[in-house]
Amino acid sequence: MGRVALTVNDLDRVTAFYERAVGLHLLRRDAATAELGAGDAVLLELRRDAAARRRSPREAGLFHTAFLLPSRPALARWVQHAISDGTPVVGASDHGVSEALYLADPEGNGVEIYADRPESEWRRRDGRVEMPSDPLDLPALLAQAGGAAWAGFPEGSTVGHVHLQVGAIAPAEAFYAGTLGLDVTCRYPGGTFYAADGYHHHIATNIWNSRGAAVRSYPSTGLAEVELRLDAPRAALIRERAGVTDGADAPFSLTDPWGTSLAVIAR
Hints:
GO molecular function, one term: dioxygenase activity
Oligomer: single chain
Protein name: Ring-cleaving dioxygenase
Keywords: Dioxygenase, Oxidoreductase
Domain VOC: 1-116
Strand order of the largest sheet: 11-6-7-8-5-12-15-14-13
Number of helices: 5
Pfam families: Glyoxalase (PF00903)
Shape: globular
Low-confidence stretches: none
Largest sheet: 9 strands, mixed
């Protein structure tokens, strides 16, 4: 997963949220855009459009961007920071494969902060990953903080996955598993999870808030683009399946059945 781009009405307010509440570092900023990340890696791009209509939570688009911390102690330090700073966390779960906390930015874009458990601890059944939504044991997690203070997202943090709202599951699977060639790793009622190379999920799609949603109408706030960074052979297969004929080695863009844009970049 590469960077996620969001269109926002209030660039100052949303940038400040991702710096303070989430802990991303501001890497570049001008009047129209802000790039935030960890180390020198851009994880989030914010694009200002003060006139864009505010996206409804019932539309297709973003469910949440999930920022992956490199260790459980780092997640524990983030939780300590969130408690001391009064960050409004809206959920917390132990998914078996990971421990996660959830919040929303000032314009309603979902955010997940999480750390993976070792893959040896992931439970699988019939070739699929089991991802329950059990209560998170916060005291056990906080015990891992080790006394160190939170200093923002450490180098090595990434966009672990992006969870999308779609209008229907069957066409979502046809696009994300069929055209993109991702493996279906888990199914919930109303949701499907997809990944490459054995991960629990890089992309998820659900209809929990958006069943029957139409193609997205722009300009609007919310998700503008998701980058997928792939090896050249995998990118070439996607190009072939999608019928893209221009520039054999150049980045290209696809849209899912609801108009969500994905930029495919061969590494």
